[in-house]
Amino acid sequence: MSEEKSRSRPRYRGTYKHIDHEGGYAIWTPSDWQKHEMSQGHHGFVFYPDASEPATFLSTEKVVLDYKVTMDDIPVLREGFQAGLNSLPDIDIEFQDEAITKTLKMFEAKFTFTEDGETRKRWLRLIYWGEAQLIVMAQGASPESYHYWLPMFFNSLMTIEFGPF
Q1: pLDDT tens, position by position, 128-157
Q2: Residue 81 to residues 74, 105, 153, Cα–Cα distance (Å)
């Protein structure tokens, strides 16, 4: 039996509402996950459920754009999203969708790909509002790790709120 299958299901020990006042968004995460601020010109955070497995994480990063995203931008954003996905080695897209409203535009995909010789599984969401882009990723170091943590990834991705706070 694999190690992933023999582990008990992940358990909540509490939740924490991480509010990024500067970024204008909030997300609920398990309270015992380690949080690290991004560096090197990135504004965001990485949350690790298990410090011994750094390729398994949930991350949020806000990018301020030079313009407000409008409905006219959707075809270019869609094309760029697809090109980005297609640039990943050995990508196998399991699910892809978008939700477009007047105020929010979201592109998402769930897929496996190869990174550093390892098969990873990722859930990616790009959310646009006004002049902002929020990049949200939930990744497992392996497909098994992704599926193990998926209930917690799901809860966090469903709790994104936009401010002001």
Answers
A1: 999 999 999 999 999 999 999 999 999 999
A2: 10, 12, 21
Query: What's the whole-model pTM score?
Result: 0.91
* pLDDT, tens digit (0-9, with 9 covering 90-100), for 84-114: 999 999 999 999 999 999 999 999 999 999 9
Give the integer Cα–Cα distance in Å for 115 and 137. Answer: 15
**Dihedral over alpha carbons 62, 81, 29, 113 (to 10 degrees):** -130
Residue 138 exposure: Cα atoms within 13 Å on the Cβ side: 23
Tell me the C-alpha distance between 113 and 62, whole Å: 24
Pairing of β 92-100 and β 57-64: unpaired
The full set of domains in the chain, from first to last, is: 15-162 (3.40.1000.10)
Contact 85, 93 (CB under 8 A): yes
